[in-house]
Amino acid sequence: MSGVTRVYGDDSKGVQLQGRWRYVLTGPDGTVKDDRVGTNIVCTNGKEFLASFLYSAAVAPSTFTCRYVAIGTDSSAESAANTALGTELARVSGVVSYLSGQIYRVTGTFAAGTGTGAIVEYGVFSSATAGTMLNRDTEAVINKGASDTLTATCELTIS
């Protein structure tokens, strides 16, 4: 392959991973109290987790476990170096799906009595406790009352 130059590590030409969140807060009667959209940062550990998963899927059957959604109260800005939420209140096992257009979706529902408080941070994790944080988002506060239900949906697009 003479005359061909290969460039490795050029982020402008490779696979990109982008996350988008949607948060819907409903009252006990089902009335939507808040509905908003935000974007996140994909954490370095999350990228490593995906690369490791692709490798393990190639060499042996594996299970992708990034399906746990957590919420918290720390408003510190997102950073690729984040490995956990600042102040986690609750974590649930999300419902996962694949959408056309290279989109992986995880939806976590925090029912009445779960994760009550001034919610500002969200993350997707590989385990029900601790584990690898794939991504993190911080947004303006959503005040989740004890009788409210909060649905947090993360869509990760690989492009």
Q: Give the spatial strand order of the biggest sheet.
A: 2-1-10-7-6
Pick out the low-confidence regions: 4-9
Q: Provide the number of structural domains.
A: 1
Order of helices and strands: EEEHEEEEEEE
Secondary structure: number of strands: 10
Task: Give me the secondary-structure topology.
Blueprint: E1 17-26, E2 32-39, E3 41-42, H1 44-59, E4 68-72, E5 88-93, E6 95-99, E7 103-110, E8 117-125, E9 133-144, E10 149-158
Write structural notes for this entry.
With 159 residues, the protein is mainly beta. It has one domain. It has a five-stranded antiparallel β-sheet, with no helix packed on it. Strands 3-9-8-4-5 form a five-stranded antiparallel β-sheet. Strand 1 and strand 2 form a beta hairpin. It is globular, with a radius of gyration of 17 Å.
Descriptive labels:
159 residues; mainly beta; five-stranded antiparallel beta sheet; 47% strand; globular
Structure summary:
This protein is mostly beta strands. The chain has one helix and ten strands; from the N terminus they run βββαβββββββ.
